[in-house]
Structure formats: structure tokens, C-alpha cells
Specification:
By secondary structure, this protein is of the alpha/beta class. The chain folds into two domains: 117 residues, NAD(P)-binding Rossmann-like Domain (Rossmann fold, 3-Layer(aba) Sandwich), CATH 3.40.50; 178 residues, Rossmann fold (3-Layer(aba) Sandwich), CATH 3.40.50.720. The protein is built from twelve helices and twelve strands. The strands form two sheets. It has a seven-stranded parallel beta sheet, sandwiched between helices. α1 links the parallel β1 and β2. Bound molecules: nicotinamide-adenine-dinucleotide. Nicotinamide-adenine-dinucleotide binds next to α5 and α7.
Length: 318
């Protein structure tokens, strides 16, 4: 019997490739970094497509995949996949919730420490040969209030870490499960309450129509002066030019930013701002997370293609 082809469009960990190998009916074709037109052509008779965040599984790409049955996202965010187009063609979309949550959470907390103590700037001053103790007097996390916008897998892990650090944690999440947040010692609040109460704010919501531009100039005006902001979720949730203005005005003392409107940024004003610690979308960039998500997506796609079993489906196609 002919094997079913699965096209891997963004590189995945070797452990994920090995996991696909446990399904003898599948043949893996790895073609990464293709421009959209070449990707559409490369799909050919592939029944499966694996992406991370770089590849845009646009309507055009999805429609070019005449035999496509499943798109697997080795990661959490599915904003690079046209879900409506996939659903129309009865293509199942799978993601790997939780597989990179610890990695993203640790980066967010790491950025909080870096902001509070200005670790990157202090290091840069040492590299420049200066012994400048006075410029880097920081603040502590202990006893401060952290506001989480979104308390799912990543937000939940950040809450657990922050509680361990002695922070009070409030969260705004219209879909949160109150028993889960209560167990984490997190107080659910409205967005306005969160903005007014938080010394640190960290964004962990998906990019959707609801969250687009959620943190704009009006929201910054409601924040505490001197707040430290972290966004390791998605670009587009925080309005970049409004954040630059809030940093310039001293309303926001510093920001840790891992995700941007355009990646790489079209406008570097935010990433290059002296009060910003910027990272190039590294949230899921740990060895452990890449193994987790690639093994998870291989198992899930194999289960669907060989047994019709849908695990972590983002859409419904029946
Ligand atoms: N920087 C990275 O590399 C990286 C890595 C992992 C995840 N992420 C991103 O982090 C975010 C969270 O990921 P996750 O795995 O925790 O996802 P998740 O689905 O487990 O959690 C998202 C949470 O956001 C909540 N939410 C939805 N709409 C909301 C709204 N309008 N306001 C507030 N909250 C809302 C949901 O109810 C859910 O609890 C996503 O945007 C994901 O793409 C980024």
C-alpha cells in the first residue's frame, strides 16, 4: 500500500521525526523554509502538514493541498493557520497545548527578573568596561502584584512560579476555570481591576479578534506608574506604538518583549527602545519544549491519520 505523505514545513526535533517513524504507513518529507508558492507546490498529495510558527498555512496554501486531511502545529498558537479555510475543506487542525508552556513561562519570569534588576543593561555596562553600581538599583518581585492577561497553560505556569516567589497574582481571563485559578491562589479580576492593581503585567492570551490591541493607550493610562510589562504571547495584543509612548512618558518603567506585530519587526522602535528587553520569539525555544511539541504532534497526527483519533483538535470537521 502506498504510504501517506506528511510534509514538515518547519524544522522539528529529531525525537519528533523518530516518533513519526513509529507509524509505518506514513512517509515524512521535510522541506523547511519554503516561500508560500513553493510550499503550495510542495504539498502535492500530502495528507498531513506540520508547521511551527514560521510557516503561514494560509487559505492559498491550504487550498493547494488537495489531499490534506490534517495540519499539525508543533506549539500552541494557531494564528498562523487559516482555521476557517481548513474547516471548510474538512481538514483537522491539531496543536500541542502545554508542550511548551514551561519554556514560555520561564522566559516570562526571566524577563520579569531582568526588568526588575536591569540585568542585561548591567551586563552591557560591564562589557563596556564600566563598574557602575549606582545606575542599576532595582526592585524586588517579593510582595508585588502580578497581573496575568490570560491564565491557560502558560499563564498558569507563570502563576505557579510567581506564587512561589511570594507575589500576589490576579488574572483577567473571561474563559478561566475558577476552580483552577483558586487552586493556584490566583484572584480573578476584570481587566480594569488588573490594570489598576498590578506592579507587573504579563500577557498570556492568544491573538484573537477579542485580544487584538487589548493593551492600547487607554489601557496604559489605567496602569500604575512604573509598571513592568512582559509580552511573551503574541504580537498585536499590545499596541507597539502606544507602548513606546508609555515607556517614553515613564508610565511603563520597562517592558520585556518576545513577540512583535511583524517578525522580524518591520519597525524596530520597540525592540531597540532602551527600556525594552527584546528577544526574537524565544518563548518555546528550549530543547525540552521542542522535543515535547514535536513528539506530541507526531503522536497526534499519527493517531488521526491511522486511527481517526482526534487529540487536541482546534476545529471540528465532522
Ligand atoms: N513566545 C512563544 O514562543 C510562545 C510559546 C508558547 C505560547 N505562546 C503564546 O502564549 C499564549 C498562551 O499560550 P497557552 O499555551 O497558555 O494557551 P492556552 O490556550 O492554554 O491559554 C490561553 C488563555 O487565554 C485565555 N483567553 C482567551 N481569550 C482571552 C481574552 N480575550 N482575554 C484574556 N484571556 C483570554 C484563554 O481562556 C486561556 O485561558 C498564546 O498566545 C500562545 O500563542 C508563545
Amino acid at each position: 500500500m502506498a504510504k501517506m505523505k506528511v510534509l514538515v514545513a518547519d524544522s522539528i526535533a529529531k525525537e519528533g521525526v523518530a516518533e513519526f517513524g513509529k507509524f509505518p504507513g506514513l512517509e515524512l518529507v521535510v522541506k523547511t523554509g519554503l516561500p508560500p508558492a513553493d510550499l503550495a507546490a510542495a504539498l502535492g498529495d500530502a495528507v498531513g502538514l506540520v508547521v511551527r510558527s514560521a510557516t503561514q498555512a494560509s487559505r492559498a496554501v491550504i487550498e493547494a493541498g488537495k489531499a490534506l486531511k490534517v495540519i499539525g502545529r508543533a506549539g500552541a498558537g494557531v494564528d498562523n493557520i487559516d482555521i476557517a479555510a481548513a474547516t471548510e475543506r474538512r481538514i483537522l487542525v491539531l496543536n500541542t497545548p502545554g508542550g511548551n508552556a514551561e519554556a514560555a513561562a520561564e522566559l516570562a519570569v526571566g524577563l520579569m527578573f531582568c526588568l526588575a534588576r536591569e540585568i542585561p543593561r548591567a551586563d552591557a555596562s560591564m562589557k563596556a568596561g564600566a563598574w557602575d553600581k549606582k545606575s542599576f538599583s532595582g526592585t524586588e518581585l517579593l510582595g508585588k502584584t502580578l497581573g496575568l492577561v490570560g491564565i491557560g497553560n502558560v499563564g498558569g505556569a507563570v502563576a505557579r512560579m510567581a506564587r512561589g516567589l511570594g507575589m500576589a497574582v490576579v488574572a483577567f481571563d473571561p474563559y478561566a476555570k475558577p476552580d483552577k485559578t483558586a487552586a493556584l491562589g490566583v484572584h480573578l479580576a476584570s481587566l480594569d481591576e488588573l490594570l489598576a492593581a498590578s506592579d507587573f503585567i504579563s500577557v498570556h492570551a492568544p491573538r484573537t479578534d477579542e485580544t487584538k490591541n487589548l493593551l492600547d493607550a487607554k489601557a496604559f493610562a489605567k496602569m500604575r506608574t512604573g509598571v513592568l510589562l512582559v509580552n511573551c504571547a503574541r504580537g498585536g495584543i499590545v499596541v507597539e506604538k502606544d507602548l513606546v509612548a508609555a515607556l517614553d512618558a515613564g508610565k511603563v518603567r520597562g517592558a520585556g518583549v518576545d513577540v512583535f506585530d511583524k517578525e522580524p519587526p518591520a519597525d524596530w522602535a520597540l525592540a531597540k527602545h532602551p527600556k525594552v528587553i527584546a528577544t526574537p520569539h524565544l518563548g518555546a525555544g528550549t530543547a525540552e519544549a521542542q522535543v515535547n511539541v514535536s513528539v506530541m504532534i507526531a503522536r497526534q497526527m499519527g493517531a488521526y491519520l491511522t486511527r481517526g483519533e482526534a487529540i487536541n483538535a482546534v476545529n471540528a470537521v465532522n
